[in-house]
Design a protein that fits this description.
alpha+beta, seven-stranded antiparallel β-sheet, 4 helices, globular
Amino acid sequence: MRSFHQTRYEAGGATARIGRRSPSMRALLQAQGQRQGAIITAWNPLARRHPEGWNRRAQMRLEALARRVPLIRGAGYGQGWREEHCLIGCSTRKALKLARRFRQLAIVVIRRDGLAQLKWLRH
C-alpha cells in the first residue's frame, strides 16, 4: 500500500519515513536506552476506517498492553488524514504480536541506525 510510504511518522519530536534514515528517531531511541523501536497503532484495523472514539479506545487498550516497555505517543500524517500511534522500545517480534492482536496490516520498525522499515503482518 502506497499510503504507508507516503506517511510521515512522528513521535517525541522525531520524524521517520519508510526507507529513510532518521537521525532524530535514532537519537530518540538512544535517549530511551533502546536499540530499536517499532511504530504501532490500533487505529483503523485492516485499513478500514473506524469512528474516532472507537479508535481512541482501541489505542488506549494497546498502550495498556505495552505498559511495561518504553512508549512515546505520536501520530502519522498522510494526505488529508491522521492516525495516532506510539513508538515502543521492544523487539520486532513483540511489536508484531501486539499489532496482530489489533488487526493491523503492518508496523514500522526503526533500527538502531534510524532506518525506518515496513514489516507486513500475516493474518
